[in-house]
């Protein structure tokens, strides 16, 4: 299946408003995870390209972009959002073909990207400093200022959403960005950058250097002339990024993995809970940082929940992204190997149900799998799988549920299914997570809702208004005037 007509050249980097090949002239091949066919050649950016992109970003700050008012920045972001919406069909198809996600999910990601632009476009002129009452004869106030040049390293699983939330907030606050998309999937990153140019974003305010993590990614993370870096990806790479940034004393936002639990109590509305319990675990073939990979169920309703979730799994169909089934393939052969390794490690456990692969296409397909009675210390209950696998774990008391829920290295998202308001409040406070949902999970993605982790899930917050504070810093001005 050929790509739709492109309005950008996928083999180029965007540096200082110009689309140009990598300085080495080298390219990397993007393949379609649904059938293994060649999609496009992308630039294999080098450290020289990252140097040029960082210099272009500084030039933008010294020029039109640095002089743009908050209102002007907001208008540009809003225009980008409009252009994104006008290109919904193309962007959705590109994301589906590049990432392997079902078309409907890819379309939702386009809408989310547009929402980020609308949200941060509207918010750009609503963030301001304060006056501080101080000693007689002084006037003290704060200025909220951009960091300067911000680096953004993003993964392949939700390119549009992650670019929207991090680049959107950084631009709203007046930073100039250098974006390093993932080598496995970066077509929508390039498309977004072209649309941003068309919307009037000044040259150099957003630069994109595709390439390998160990090359372009490492060059950006360790660059001595950036002022902030936002990284979304695996824990191991996050450590490398934070270590590299530390050499330059550059602040870091880390959005890493998770092992997020849903806690189902006997008094829960199971009809309402069921779709959330299942869908939020297998969405995007489980390749979601906030996937609910652990389902903790009070023992008196455990068999019922297991039976009902198993029935949902039996109806799941796995097929190429453009066929828009429940799930598409995994991103790569490597990811399939990793997930298959976990399935092998679960061979001693009870498989409650599996979905069906309904294609012969040579993509990276894995049947979604639900494991029952998983011991809380088992690797399936402790480690991030990043595939369509969920672990059911029974519990006997609220204290036990909390101990299991908090008993991993991660802390990204959690949910509580119960009608008991006091329990909801107790657990919402006690759960180790950046987001807690009461009788829902994910709240539809929530552009407006601050998001981020604790522990090995990372630190810092993106999304919502909070991200605007995160992508800016305060200056205090104290005037002694008598
Ligand atoms: P990854 O860490 O391998 O890659 C992420 C990005 O980092 C890519 O752009 C890659 O090129 C780059 N990179 C790789 N090595 C690098 C290096 N040495 N220096 C600098 N950059 C480097 O992660 P992945 O496997 O692509 O993504 C999956 C992981 O991301 C999962 O653990 C998932 O939970 C996490 N994730 C987290 C969130 C979140 O918001 N918390 C969102 C999506 C994914």
TrEMBL record:
SUPFAM superfamilies the UniProt entry points to: ALDH-like (SSF53720)
Keywords from the named record: Oxidoreductase
InterPro entries: Ald_DH/histidinol_DH (IPR016161), Ald_DH_C (IPR016163), Ald_DH_CS_GLU (IPR029510), Ald_DH_N (IPR016162), Aldehyde_DH_dom (IPR015590)
Domain Aldehyde dehydrogenase: 19-477
Short name of any one Pfam family annotated for the protein: Aldedh
Annotated catalytic residues: 255
Record-stated family: Belongs to the aldehyde dehydrogenase family.
Name the record gives this protein: Aldehyde dehydrogenase (NAD+)
Organism the protein comes from: Shimia sagamensis
